[in-house]
Specification:
The protein has helices spanning 2-10, 16-23, 74-83; strands at residues 52-58, 63-69. It has 84 residues and is α+β, with helices and mostly antiparallel strands. Helix 1 packs across helix 2 (16-23). The longest helix is centred in the C-terminal third of the chain and has 10 residues, at 74-83.
């Protein structure tokens, strides 16, 4: 779905540069596969598209929660990439 958004934003210019420019300029894209309130954002120096978490509380019969912003540190990202 993100790819579809990027291709639509690129229009008829499907060059590498255009695709990359569109992929790095996504702002507040909400997708049906994500929980309400979770948004996709990218930028020139921000390649992590999802930086929100959805904490849920289960009460025995239902769950409720709200979106929270959580930006991982650069060190934790580097460690995950090295471990992967």
């Amino acid at each position: 779905m993100v790819l579809e958004h990027v291709l639509k934003a690129a229009g008829n210019d499907l060059s590498r540069e255009s695709i990359l420019r569109q992929a790095l300029s996504i702002k507040d894209l909400e997708l049906p596969m994500l929980l309400p309130g979770i948004k996709i954002n990218t930028g020139e120096s921000d390649h992590l598209p999802v930086e929100q978490l959805q904490f849920m509380r289960f009460t025995g019969s239902s769950a409720s929660g709200s979106a929270r912003c959580s930006r991982p540190s650069s060190a934790s990202i580097s460690n995950r990439m090295l471990a992967g």
